[in-house]
Design goal:
By secondary structure, the protein is of the alpha+beta class. The protein contains six helices and ten strands, in the order H-E-H-H-E-E-E-H-E-E-E-H-E-H-E-E. Strand 5 and strand 6 form a beta hairpin.
Length: 238
């Protein structure tokens, strides 16, 4: 009854209604879809785990919106050690249990393909095709500003110890694709939850849509990527 009373205007079926993180989720899922196609495997064998999307900064509301818009399909993974391949049980509601995985629908693949050719919303922001491995973000700890070339990405007007610790560690290490969680162990605090929350905060209030922070899916590492192109453009640390 409640669902039937929702105004239809709330469901804006347009890519322009998606947040930056929701767009990045479509790109990540499109990457998985393309990989499945390249290996001639069923798309569900490359389904993306909910933990990876959490690590990229999305929350349950972001994912439920994508489901309602018809871009994603989700299922609960019930694969065991004895399974010859990944096995899933379809989910018919918006409940998102721990082992939920996602794939793009046909509509979602079309949308992600559109994002792949979409130009950055910031005029003059360099795309992946024009970026060399020597180009990477820069964290200025004194001014508490995060930069990409001449573009100010984020500025901290108040102390944010956890976020600044991660940015300082990335700067010190030369901005690797992935690094171990640099936040110090604190009694009574779950480090995985803290890292997840910090990554979400790092992805908020960007002045330019150029880079995005994400977890590694294990809850123990953090990395970064370029946005505005289909292919994840992590600067390789190898």
């Amino acid at each position: 009854m409640i669902a039937a009373q929702r105004p239809s205007a709330l469901r804006v079926d347009s890519l322009f209604s998606l947040t930056r993180l929701q767009r990045e989720a479509l790109r990540l899922l499109h990457h998985a879809s393309e990989a499945a196609s390249a290996q001639a495997r069923d798309i569900w064998q490359f389904a993306v785990e909910i933990g990876q999307l959490y690590g990229a900064g999305l929350d349950n509301t972001d994912l439920r919106q994508l489901l309602c818009l018809g871009y994603l399909e989700h299922a609960w993974e019930r694969t065991t050690d004895r399974s010859g391949q990944r096995i899933f049980r379809p989910l018919e509601t918006l409940v998102l249990p721990k082992r939920t995985c996602f794939v793009l629908t046909a509509k979602g693949r079309d949308a992600a393909s559109g994002l792949a050719v979409e130009k950055s919303r910031t005029v003059g922001v360099p795309s992946e095709a024009h970026c060399s491995f020597k180009e990477m973000p820069r964290w200025d700890s004194e001014s508490r500003q995060l930069w990409w070339q001449a573009y100010l990405i984020k500025e901290f007007r108040r102390p944010a110890v956890n976020q600044e610790t991660i940015l300082a560690a990335l700067e010190e290490e030369g901005w690797p694709a992935r690094m171990d969680d640099p936040l110090p162990q604190t009694p009574g605090i779950d480090p995985k939850v803290r890292l997840h929350d910090t990554i979400k905060s790092l992805n908020r209030h960007h002045l330019q849509s150029i880079i995005c922070f994400r977890g590694d899916g294990s809850g123990t590492g953090v990395g970064w990527m370029m946005v505005g192109s289909e292919r994840v453009s992590l600067i390789s640390s190898r």
